[in-house]
Write a structure and sequence with these properties.
Elements: E1 4-12, E2 15-21, E3 26-31, H1 37-49, E4 51-53, E5 56-57, H2 60-63, E6 76-84, H3 96-102, E7 106-114, E8 121-124, H4 132-142, E9 145-150, H5 156-162, H6 164-175, H7 185-196, H8 198-207, E10 213-216, E11 231-235, E12 238-241, H9 247-269, E13 274-280, H10 288-302, E14 309-315, H11 318-323, E15 326-333, E16 336-341, H12 345-354, E17 372-375, H13 378-391, E18 398-401, H14 402-406, H15 413-423, H16 425-429, E19 437-439, H17 445-452
Length: 470
């Protein structure tokens, strides 16, 4: 989902006059340590919640752009957010006047903090400051959005424990139609909780095959109803608490739980219309294949048809950059932090690699959990991508051709493509079996003999089907 299309920040920490345009479903910010990436997330947190870090309110004295602190001018911090509301973002009947006030599906809201002022000033499309009744309308709009800022240093299970009321509410709402009276109530708790976290169980099993079962630690009696939700994970039939798991599994449990809660808001009672996650380095504590799974999971979550989740993440991971649909590079100089949005995210990947921020990745190993379909040229590339779209292919499939792989003009047609694959066959073999390289050629009689003589790697008989995972 694309809800925020642009962010501008003035005089906040390292962001003197920074802008990030053209945000995507899942936008990844790369850059060196202390380059200002996380300050953009904190600025968004201040805009939506009034806090820079969890429990820490924005302070002009503490958060003002430091090089200008000694200048004799009014000290103001300003955060502007441009919204582009998708069609499925609705205003319920009681607040339709809010939608009318905002004036359309695309508008810009800004908040400005100054010394000594108890609350920030509000601006709509550059006009303001707004009167209190119009500020209230802006707040009513912002209340339709669940915003989450998750710093890198937090403990994942503390986030899960902090959401136990929300998770309990989800379970109780789904449980209510099943329980008539008291009989079987606690068996119904177990049954409903198992169905509730079925997607969590599936993703944990895929990420860590040694874990056979995941279940919520639900109450066994009415005396247990004052409970905090926790997870139980089983290996070979032996259950252990979630706190005994590694930090990577805890991070995955946190993301799965937050997605479950936020999505249920929309399905069950519509007062939240969208969610925005600001994540610091979601790849932390993850081994390589789990890092890829988390990056792909975030990509899938944010790009669902009629989805309601947008993600902005800081990262040092080439995998997060690969799976994001937008990527920007943060740089800091004597004028503060600036963000360079790559027209092609591969340019950001290359810059991150050259700067020593992330690993260099062979082009044949990009998006390692998605099949790679290689075609002969740009027209075949456009045709096949459109065909997958029209067929409603549910699985993520990457389509590429030699010019994209090599990063520049390439001549020679199919023979050059096959030569490239033979030269880099080691990279092909390093892909997981569920995400192969598939070559699709336009067959004709004139070059049949030529192709047969190339002794190329054997091509699969058919490509992954449009309706499933294989």
């Amino acid at each position: 989902m694309k809800l925020i299309s642009e962010v501008k920040v003035q005089s906040f920490r390292s962001l003197n006059n920074a802008s990030l345009p053209d945000l995507g479903h899942f936008t990844a910010l790369a850059g060196e340590n202390n380059s200002g990436k996380s300050n953009l997330l904190r600025a968004l947190n201040a805009f939506f919640s009034g806090s820079t870090d969890p429990g820490v309110a924005l302070s002009v004295d503490a958060d003002y752009y430091r090089p200008d602190l000694g200048k004799k001018k009014a000290k103001r911090i300003r955060v502007s957010v441009k919204f582009s509301l998708p069609d499925h973002f609705k205003f319920r009947k009681s607040i339709r006047h809010v939608g009318d006030f905002l004036g359309g599906r695309e508008f810009t809201l800004a908040k400005e903090w100054s010394r000594g002022a108890p609350v920030p000033k509000y601006f709509l499309n550059g006009e303001g400051p707004l009167e209190p009744d119009n500020r209230l309308k802006c707040d009513q709009f912002l209340d339709l959005i669940a915003f989450r800022y998750i710093p890198n240093r937090v403990l994942p299970l503390e986030i899960v424990r902090g959401e136990h009321h929300s998770l309990r509410d989800v379970l109780v709402r789904r449980l209510a139609p099943k329980v008539r009276g008291h009989a079987g109530a606690f068996e119904a708790f177990k049954e409903t909780s198992s169905a509730l976290i079925s997607s969590v169980t599936q993703h944990i099993r895929e990420a860590c095959p040694q874990i056979g079962e995941v279940r919520l630690a639900t109450p066994d009696s009415w005396q247990d109803l004052a409970f905090l939700f926790a997870y139980k994970l089983a290996t070979n039939g032996v259950e252990t608490d979630d706190v005994a798991q590694g930090s990577g599994i805890q991070s995955l449990l946190m993301l799965e739980t937050l997605a479950l809660i936020d999505r249920d808001f929309f399905q069950r009672f519509g007062w939240k219309q969208a969610a925005i996650w600001a994540l610091e380095e979601p790849e932390s504590s993850l081994h390589n294949i789990l890092e890829a799974r988390v990056a792909k999971y975030l990509s899938d979550l944010s790009s669902e048809t009629n989805g309601r989740l947008q993600i902005v993440a800081t990262t040092h991971s080439d995998l997060v950059l690969q799976y994001a649909d937008r990527a920007a590079f943060a740089k800091q100089n004597n004028k503060g932090t600036s963000f360079v949005l790559g027209e092609d995210k591969k340019l950001v990947l290359e810059e991150a690699s050259r700067s020593g921020i992330s690993r260099w990745v062979h082009p044949l190993l990009w998006s390692p959990l998605s099949p790679l379909v290689l075609v002969e040229g740009k027209y075949d590339h456009a045709f096949l991508q459109e065909a997958f779209r029209l067929l409603g292919v549910r699985r993520s499939i990457n389509v590429s051709f030699l010019e994209l792989l090599e990063g520049g003009p390439v001549t020679g047609g199919v023979e050059s493509l096959i030569k490239y694959l033979k030269s880099h066959f080691g990279a092909v073999r390093n892909r997981v079996s569920s995400a192969p390289v598939v070559v699709v050629l336009i067959w004709n009689d004139r070059r049949q003999a030529s192709v047969n003589k190339t002794d190329a790697p054997r091509r699969p008989s058919k490509a992954p089907g449009p309706q499933g995972d294989g």
